[in-house]
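Write out this protein's structure.
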Amino acid sequence: MTRGPLATDGLVGVELTNGWRIVDRIEAGKGGSGGNLSVGFLAINKENQKGFVKALDFGKVFGTADDQALENLEFLLDSFNYEKRLLMKCAERRMNRIVRLLDSGFLEVDHPGVRYPRVDYLICEVADGDVRKFLTHLKADCGVF
């Protein structure tokens, strides 16, 4: 089955309804974090604050011949909602060593051929690094884990 264009394929340059503008797509590097069902972007708001956008693309779940589509959808939604709740709890407790959730929302893209146009997203502070990449290096360098 061909997947066709995804809703997240044309998001660079899109202005979100909350004042953030998506300026670049972030590709997950080797050993780094990267969702199979989400896409990372860099965004900037009107005050020139940078944010990391985690965008869910439902076309990645439904646009495949995978017989695990419902399980993938469940995982996608559970992970997204858990991450959002966790970031909100951390903010409530004023934890200062955790990236903050800056905003969240959704948009409907208007790109030709996109079968699943809804994109839900979280916007977080841009982190100094990637925890999975850090743990991979820590394991390799120190034999930890």
